[in-house]
Amino acid sequence: MHDTPLVFIDVETTGTRATRDRITEVAALKVVEGKVVEQFVSLVYPGTSVPAHISRLTGIDADMLADAPTFQAIAGELLAWLGDACLVAHNARFDASFLRNEFKRAGYTYRPKLVCTLRLSRRLIPALPEHNLAALLARYHIQQTCQHRAEEDATALWELWQAWQDEFDANTWQAALADEQRHRTLPAHLSSEQLADLPSAPGVYLFYGHNRLPLYVGKSVNLRSRVLGHFQRDHQDDKEMRLAQQVQHIEWEETAGDLSAQLREAQLVKTLMPIMNRQLRRQGNLKTWYWPSDAPCPTLVSGKAISQPQPGKLFGLFRSAKEAKETLRSITEEYQLCPQVMGLEKGKGRCFAHQLGKCRGACYQQESLDAHTQRAHQALAKLQVSAWPWPGRIAIREQSRKGGPVAYHVVDHWCYLGSATTKRRAQALKGDTPRFDVDTYRILNRFLNTPEQHQLTIAPL
After folding, report:
1. pLDDT higher than threshold 70 for residue 236
2. 341 φ, ψ to 5°?
3. Total-model pTM
């Protein structure tokens, strides 16, 4: 890094989403052989409004930006000015992500080398309680007249860099820089030691933020690849950027295979309620359409019916009665079924849908009830809930690789009762009262349809 120019840079933006928000100011100092040789400072017209809270923070408002150039207008000049210099920034992934996206919009590719002073601070002064730029500047008595302006922050960052070089001996300084470069793809708040033992095996992982706030739960057949993958595309994905900005701690559990990982992921999401998991959340009052074999139409019932043997068929898994009724109404109209016979409308005789040509007349015997029922079952077939094909509980043995962990998953009428490491322990599993879960049902249904593909063996208990 001795021969590479360093560019101490800071950008101000309209928000935190690198893919959608825009740069409003860029300032950079080019340092060669320990001396500032050039600087680049410019306001940038973002082409969008600046939120009020951002203006209060930075002092940059619409009036200041009205006559500023667009990023596209300065992109060529800035790219040439940056050259192959290494960018130095506090929380460098943030600044670099915005620059990469702005250059991309302008038709350029920019993939700079980075040094993150936030990560560097954590390596140099691990006992320091706060590593944000304001705290570091206060520690080294570096004065700023205006925080959150790009030129002030870039200049302060260069002064901080010089203070570190004065404080630490050459070996300590170079070792910290080398370690920073080895782990430059990791989030600034995450210690590299946490990832040292991540296995290339199936399992679940948990991302935590400040004060161990659960951020995200995920699963993979290759934990190491998946976890590291989160931090390699944050410049093009807002969710990954938010994770990279907030994650401070990672935990993981190795599992016997993909089925174990998916079951455990669903369980952890419902237990921990991580703020960035949208799917697999605990469902509300699950509903399904129950159609007894001797009834002319289905009845909307609780999802609990799915875990209980029924003398009829169940159709659909819905998170609300409204969703269930809208789905049935849509199918009724698509297949010219009678809304009266299907129980969606009250009345006798010819229905209004028939007058519109949307019903074949089961409401007044133009179509026989048997023919209507047969067509309705065919129309609903794609929604049919799979019947439990065993008389009672089963154990699903899983082991995805030789020498890896073994798991026996105990399931009864699509209800997951738990897992054990041996069949004997699995037989002893009682669990709480079985509770049907739509996500677990979908996971199990998918795996049990093709058990051989997933190295699963099934045995009744």
Report:
1. no
2. -65, -35
3. 0.72
